[in-house]
Structures are given as C-alpha cells and as structure tokens.
Write a structure and sequence with these properties.
By secondary structure, the protein is an alpha/beta fold. It is built from seven helices and four strands; from the N terminus they run H-E-H-E-H-H-H-E-E-H-H. It folds into two domains: 2-58 and 114-191, 3-Layer(aba) Sandwich (Rossmann fold), CATH 3.40.50.1820; 71-108, no CATH class. Strand 1, helix 2 (27-41) and strand 2 (48-52) form a beta-alpha-beta unit. Helix 1 packs across helix 2.
Length: 192
C-alpha cells in the first residue's frame, strides 16, 4: 500500500496545489491516512481527512480476521454486507476466482499499521454505519488520535456500504468543509 499512496500523492501534486480534502472508505480510509501523511510531509495542505467504514488503525485487536476464516465463513461475511448478489455468492466457480482477490483486500486492511506517532494537522471526520459488522460506530473513536481537534463522528442508519447512498454522506462532508471555511455558499453549486 505504501507504493499506491506514493503514486496517488505524486499525481495529486501534479494536478493541484490547492488544499486537498481526502475521503476514504473501508481499506481506502487507511490509504487516505497514508496519503494525508505524505502530502503534509511534502508541505501540502490537507485541512480535512474523512474516513468511512474502517476501524481506527489503533484498534488492531478487534479487526475482523479473515486470515483464519474458511472460504465458507468469508463468503458468509460478504453475504452479511448485503452488497454482493446471492447469485454470485452461490456460484462456486465464480467465487473460486473472486475469493482470493477479495480476501487480499481484507488482508491489507487487517494488516495495516500506520506510521508510529502519526498526528496530522488535518481535522478528521469519521463515518460509520450502525449496522456495519466490520466497523461499527464504537470502533471509529480512535481516528481522533490522528488529527487535530475533536473527532467528528457520524453514525448512519446503514451497513458497511452506506456510501452507495451518496447524498447524505456528501452533504455531511460539504457541511464539514463549510465549517472549516473551505467552501462557502457561492461554491455550493460547484460542489453538487
């Protein structure tokens, strides 16, 4: 994941010198944290880091362990999210192809360890689904250790993939950006 963060930061530097707001969902939350760290280290402004559906990085003991789960157990975990069609989950040949890829994604999140002592200049806002089996709201509080000020936590009445309903999350992010002075009423139309 460090190489991916390096590549993303290099591309961000190529396209903008403006302040950068990062949003990461699930494994992407850890990637966004790494990118924020690299951006700040390079002198870029990252006023806001938004993390969603990912346990705080210091909550290692409570992360869901897929390394030791059977294919059947892992498939049932995927089923519990409600995002993958049952026809796909019940198709052994397709699952034989997909399981290694999906498991690798989970293993990256399971094994993620942030830079020791990392504390960003960015404010951190966290989003969680109240019905998320991987990252319920109570698992998000540790994200406050990684940014300045108090953690703003939004618990939504949803599961792990609450970001598929874009408007509520986008509205909350926009509100946070507005409270930090990053956008004003004249820019709202551009943000929509």
């Amino acid at each position: 994941m460090p190489q991916l963060a390096d590549d993303l930061v290099r591309e961000l530097h190529r396209v903008t010198q403006a302040p950068i707001v990062l949003f990461g969902h699930s494994l992407g939350a850890y990637l966004a944290l790494d990118c924020a760290h690299l951006l700040e280290a390079a002198g870029s402004s990252v006023p806001l880091l938004c993390v969603a559906a990912a346990r705080a990085p210091d909550d290692l003991a409570n992360r869901h362990r897929v390394r030791d789960s059977s294919d059947e157990e892992f498939t049932e975990l995927l089923r519990s999210f409600g995002a993958t069609p049952a026809e796909l989950l019940d198709h052994p040949e397709i699952m034989k192809l997909l399981l290694p890829v999906l498991r690798a994604d989970f293993l990256l999140a399971e094994e993620y360890v942030p830079v020791a002592g990392l504390r960003l200049a960015a404010a951190v806002t966290a989003f969680s689904g109240r019905h998320d089996p991987l990252a319920p709201p109570e698992s998000m509080h540790g994200w406050g250790h990684y940014g300045k000020g108090d953690l703003e936590l939004h618990a939504l009445d949803a599961g792990h993939f609450f970001v598929s309903d874009v408007e509520p999350v986008a509205g909350l992010v926009l509100g946070q950006m507005r409270s930090l002075g990053l956008v004003g009423p004249e820019r709202d139309a551009v943000m929509r």
